[in-house]
Design brief:
By secondary structure, the chain is of the alpha+beta class. It has three helices and nine strands, in the order αββββαβαββββ.
Length: 132
């Protein structure tokens, strides 16, 4: 099967949109738009995000706290901003319990690192939810 064919099949699955936020190596807020997000466990409270190895955020998340910002219906411009199409005005940041967060989201989960797994051309990050 061709890579593009499989990518098109995966693209048929409707999912919510999140922006994963963390601090970069300089301590500045950084974000990446991610649709590969899921709840994992209620006890302990765990969630999963999956990022391509090529993304900058992937290197910043190694053993680091992060936040899952669940986009509200009116935040398409913010989701696109973190997908590589900068919007003006840009996002509004706030301090979160574990990492920088975005204002105006439908919900935000603040996480500490729980586990990391090889996911082929992606890395699977499991976070323990410490605040919502």
């Amino acid at each position: 099967m061709e890579r593009k064919s499989l990518q098109n099949v995966f693209g048929q699955f409707a999912s919510g949109v999140t922006v994963i936020t963390c601090a970069n190596d300089d301590g500045e807020p950084h974000g990446a738009t991610v649709t590969a997000f899921t709840a994992v466990s209620l006890e302990p409270r765990l969630c999963q995000v999956t990022l391509t190895r090529k993304s900058k955020a992937c290197s910043f998340l190694q053993d680091s706290p992060f936040a899952v910002n669940i986009m509200a219906a009116d935040q398409l411009d913010i989701a696109m901003h973190f997908a590589g199409r900068p919007a003006q005005p840009g996002p509004t940041w706030a301090d979160g319990a574990t990492a920088p967060v975005l204002r105006g989201c439908a919900a935000t989960l603040s996480c500490t690192p729980w586990a990391t797994y090889d996911g082929g051309d992606h890395i699977i990050f499991i976070g323990e939810i410490v605040d919502a």
